[in-house]
Amino acid sequence: MAWCVTVNSGHRLSSPVFDPTTGNVVVGDDSGRVSVVADLGGTGSLSLTNTITGLTNIPDVPILDGSTGKIVVFSGSNGSNAVVVQDDVTLANVNRVTIPVGQASSTQVHSGTFDNTYYTVGPPSGHLYVCGKGASNDQPSLYRIGVVDGLGRLSSATDAGPLPLTTTANVAAECSPLSEIFNSNQGGGVDWLFAGVPGSCAVGGSTNGCVMSFNITGAFPATASFGGAEAGGTSGIIVDNVSIDGQASSLYYSTLSDDAKCGTGGCAVKRTQAGLQ
User: Fold this and answer.
1) What is d(CA 26, CA 171) in angstroms, rounded to the nearest whole number?
2) Residue 272 exposed, middle or buried by CB count within 10 Å (0-12, 13-18, 19+)
3) 186 lies in which domain range?
4) Is 75 within 8 Å of 99 (Cβ atoms)?
5) Is residue 116 within a helix (H) or strand (E), and if so which, with residue range?
6) What is the DSSP letter of 234?
7) Is 276 inside any structural domain?
8) Please, are residues 57 and 13 in contact by the beta-carbon 8 Å criterion?
9) Over the range 149-166, which residues count as b (16 or more CB within 10 Å of their CB) and which as e?
10) Is residue 89 part of a domain?
11) pTM over the 0.85 mark
12) Fewer CB within 10 Å, N- or C-terminus of the chain?
């Protein structure tokens, strides 16, 4: 037998995330609402409980850290700013924090990612990286947010950025979701961050979109390490492997516009992590 519950009638949901500790499912939607669906006592009976409202479109699955019981979502606007919102997985608004990441925008803000230090050392070490907007324009820009305690709570303000990722201040453009991998076989170990933007790239000179890599091993980057032209920017980026074999430490994505290399429609692309070759 199947059970169901209406989350937000008439709206498209993001992918959901399941918390095995509480049995809750957390999901965003295109109205900007984040909802938690609870399993009532393990009976299979579902209940829509708490929500986060007042945001614009939540396009991506919320980030869940099961070790801290917290979720993070990303939105282009809460009416005042582009924002990152963190809450307990119950969405009870006891420990909720809202972090501005640039001006409010009509374009979406996609998922950020934690750095390697957060994953390997754990809270309160490490940082969350996100591509938000410019402080006073719609320019896709990189920010960093610190973690303030062992409970995994984020700081209420960014501690680095904005680093503009385009050369045009008011280009209404979206970054791809951010992807991270620590490659222990490059130098003494490199923590790579990858992002795509759809035009006017700050590194690589492409006016029609690109992919960029950032070395975030020891500090917030001053610029991208490498850039490569990609028509219309990129989809979400999959990182794969830390092998020492040639062409084995890679990233994969699709382009978002027609590309001469593939004819009509986007391309499926593989590049190396080091140098984006």
Assistant:
1) 32
2) middle
3) 176-277
4) no
5) helix 116-120
6) B
7) yes
8) no
9) eeebbbbeebebbbbbbb
10) no
11) yes
12) N
